[in-house]
Amino acid sequence: MVPSALTHELTVHIADNARAMLLSMTETIRRHFTATGYVANQTSVLLHWHRKSKLWLPPGGHIEENEDPVQAVIREAKEETGLDVVVLPSGGPGPFDFDEPGQVQSPVTILIEDIDDPVDGFHHHIDMIYFLAISDPGQEPLPGWQWFTREQLNSGDGLRSPDGDMVPPPPDVLEVGVLAIDAVKNRA
After folding, report:
1. What is the helix (H) or strand (E) element at residue 12, kind and residue range?
2. Which CATH number fits domain 30-187: 1.10.1660.10, 3.30.420.40, 3.90.79.10, 3.40.50.300?
3. Domains of the chain: which residue ranges?
4. Cα dist. 160→29, 81, 155 in Å?
5. I want to staple 38 with a disulfide (CB 3.0 to 4.6 A). Which of 117, 180, 181, 186 is the partner?
6. In 55-170, which ranges are continuous DSSP H helix?
7. Residues 70 and 78: beta-carbon distance below 8 Å
């Protein structure tokens, strides 16, 4: 038989842990809805050095009020890269045969990204990922954008950051970047 003082201590400890767990489950993390576009051609994907994150990333950003994710990804790509782009089919179901209600093209995937911003604090980006192709191949991206080849992505090789360090893109960008190149190749 367990002494009653020890039983009480154990019960209080379990109750405290359960209360802490319940509180952590009910805390809400702020969520921002974003759209990211992997601009690709048949051999490479376009990335830039994101100063705040200190990572090689594709264009993307917050979905604005009264904007759907496809409008947002096209706008972000134009604002950030200077390129006119088209959204490639995601390969998922749709568009469906009905006319109403309207449909928005499905993203390739949706990522939940942890963001620890010095201004906005910790929050999540619910990030809709799209594959994009340049609508007019004669266009050139704005300065600061780099083409990463399939070989660089597959090997995880980095490019020199503005700080002078060789930095590879993050694992999700490496993997999704290769898939974007494949989507453009399969479109041709």
Report:
1. helix 4-26
2. 3.90.79.10
3. 30-187
4. 34, 19, 15
5. 180
6. 69-81, 150-155
7. no
Residue with tokens 């200190």: 54
SS3 176: helix
Tell me the three state secondary structure of residue 19: helix
**Total residues found in the chain within this entry:** 188
Of the CA atoms within 13 Å of residue 85, those in its CB half-sphere come to 33
Cα-based distances in Å from 26 to 13, 47, 170: 20, 37, 31
Give Cα 163 distance to the centre of its chain.
Answer: 24
pTM: 0.83
What's the sign of the alpha-carbon dihedral 167, 171, 175, 176?
Answer: negative
